[in-house]
Amino acid sequence: MSSSCQFLLAGDSQHTQLVSIPLSTASSFRSLHQLKQAVAAKFNVVDPSKLSFSVDGTVSEDLVSLLKSHRPIIVLVNGHAVVDPPGPSGLPFIGSHTEVYPDHIGNHERLFQVYGSLFQTTIMGRTVYHTNDPEITGHVFKESAFFTKEINSAHPLYGVKSPHAGVFLTSTHTDIWKEAHKFMVPSMGPKAIDKHCRTVVDIVRSTFPVFDELERTKQAFNVYDLMLKLSSQIVGKLFIDADFGHFRSADAPVHITVKTIFRLLGLNKKVTSWGDWYTYLPFGDPKRLRDTWHEVGERVAAHIAEAKVRREDGDVPLQEAALKTENLTDFFIRAVDNKGNKLPAETRKPALIVAVTAGFVTTSALLSWLLYGLTSYGDSQARILQELVDSGMTEDTDLSDGKFLSQLSFLDKYVKETQRHHTTSFQPARTARMDLVLPNGMRLPKGAVVIPEIHHLHHNREVWDNPQRFDPDRWDTEKVKNRDRSSYIPFAMGPRMCIASNFVLREVKIILAQLVFRYEFIRYRETEPIEYDPMFQTIRPRNLYMKTRKRTTWPSPSS
Ligand code: HEM
């Protein structure tokens, strides 16, 4: 008689695995659930509940008869043998490059339709896995024994990986991430947000003369360019105490620091789209990427040296630092945790570069799509204005502390729907820590980089009704309210998600409320289809132009 239960993970013959669980251990299983957990642990199956057991071709849920089986018990995942993720076979050498670029959004959508909710692409020998499945996404972002943010050579951030930045560009299993994250989170906590938003309100007011000048001189403006100026003016002030001078006049140039960071991100997208080997080339774009990275470092260092830091007031406890410091540079220099530790000096500059970059590149794209929607989606602009009027807004209303904004339910739905339909981030990636089997029964090798494709999660037909329709009111429906948390993740999710999501949501609502209350936004060249820039780190409209008209009348409050 056998002294153990044998389990065979069904798969192709090359990957079939047999494991034994001694009967002394097996007899201690009290439920099928416990057995599934033990077997899942042996085969590295991410979700034990997806296992089923088959003996002699029949699936059985009877624990007692399963444990008595003298024959190997066949283990199925999601009801079938495990398989490798499918994907296009691609061309020699360049692989799937032409299947993905130049239109990665459209092509990924096509590939999801052809191959299902998980597929792989290989470009220049670098394989990446893409998913639009909320369940897989939830596991991928968890930071668990199975997945972590590890920036290996297949990872989209490989070209700008930084061992010292701590956040964003550094792998999770490093001491520096834990340290940097600990200091950065309170810098975007609730008290900090109230303070930051007072600066946001002032900077939005400083844009009014520019909008007025553009109207007086009958000029249309490129929406992304103007929103780039606005969002970088805000993070420049908040993080490195820099006045980029973007609103001194309508034609004030974009500050050289902002231009250099912008160039860095374009180059990174371009270079990493060609694979690991390309990043090492001593000439062309890879060299330009390295040089630009160096230049960004020097420019930000110069801002840090000039930023106001109240050294004379001494160190401040981390939890009070948001209120007692002048800006993020001051925060990083003077905040001390309860063990007396400070953010390591070598992390300050790279972490500030990340904060400034993450801060304006994403927000400028989101703001541009928010303005696009005002002029493209039905009565959105009129509804936002009506809500502001109904809530009693005047030119002097203080929007910074969030109380006024919290009444604006349509504005909230409008921002949510814009972040769903016009997702700006598309490549947060995580890496498999071991050979594993996903809940859908597909296996991934250790080191596999998985990208939950945010745009495609937000347009997954199994989750969203009519996903191509812009419909802010969908956020009132029970279906959307009860959705899987992982099906809507504009700021990613899990321990490595955006640290500034609450700030951003308040910031963009302040900007929208202040601008829509004062100006009517009118699309210019409205028949021209809007193109996004596929070779940029975020999804931004390239050719969106508008004009504004200063409001002289407002609607009456609704009865
Ligand atoms: C519309 C605005 C924004 C969007 C859509 C956005 C989105 C994201 C996403 C998707 C991630 C995850 C990246 C990944 O997993 O690789 C992320 C991380 C991050 N974001 Fe944002 N972000 C925005 C604004 C900001 C701002 C204003 C800041 C300023 C501090 C910021 C700071 C960060 C940092 C530091 C991380 C990395 C956290 C970590 O590594 O643990 N983001 N953001």
Q: Which segments are poorly predicted (pLDDT under 50) over 5 or more consecutive residues?
A: none
Give the names of the bound compounds: protoporphyrin IX containing FE
How many alpha or pi helices? 20
Quickly give the structural class.
alpha+beta
Oligomer: single chain
Rg result: 26 Å
Care to count the β-strands?
17
Percentage of residues in strands: 5-15%
Family: Belongs to the cytochrome P450 family.
InterPro entries: Cyt_P450, Cyt_P450_E_grp-IV, Cyt_P450_sf, Cytochrome_P450_Monoox
Transmembrane segments: 351-374
Cofactor: heme
Q: Can you characterise this structure?
A:
- By secondary structure, this protein is an alpha+beta fold.
- It has helices at 23-26, 32-43, 63-68, 97-100, 104-115, 134-140, 175-184, 190-216, 223-240, 256-272, 276-279, 284-306, 318-324, 328-334, 345-376, 380-390, 409-421, 454-457, 478-481, 501-518, and strands at residues 4-9, 17-22, 51-55, 58-60, 73-77, 118-123, 126-131, 147-148, 221-222, 316-317, 335-336, 430-432, 436-437, 443-444, 449-452, 519-524, 545-550.
- The strands form five sheets. Strands 2-1-5-3-4 form a five-stranded mixed β-sheet. Strands 6-7-15-12-8 form a five-stranded mixed β-sheet, with helices on both faces. A three-stranded antiparallel β-sheet has the order 9-17-16.
- α8 runs antiparallel to α9 (223-240), α9 runs antiparallel to α15 (345-376) and α10 (256-272) runs antiparallel to α12.
- The longest helix has 32 residues, at 345-376.
- The protein is globular, with a radius of gyration of 26 Å.
- Bound molecules: protoporphyrin IX containing FE.
- Keywords: Heme, Iron, Membrane, Metal-binding, Monooxygenase, Oxidoreductase, Transmembrane, Transmembrane helix.
- Heme binds at residue 498.
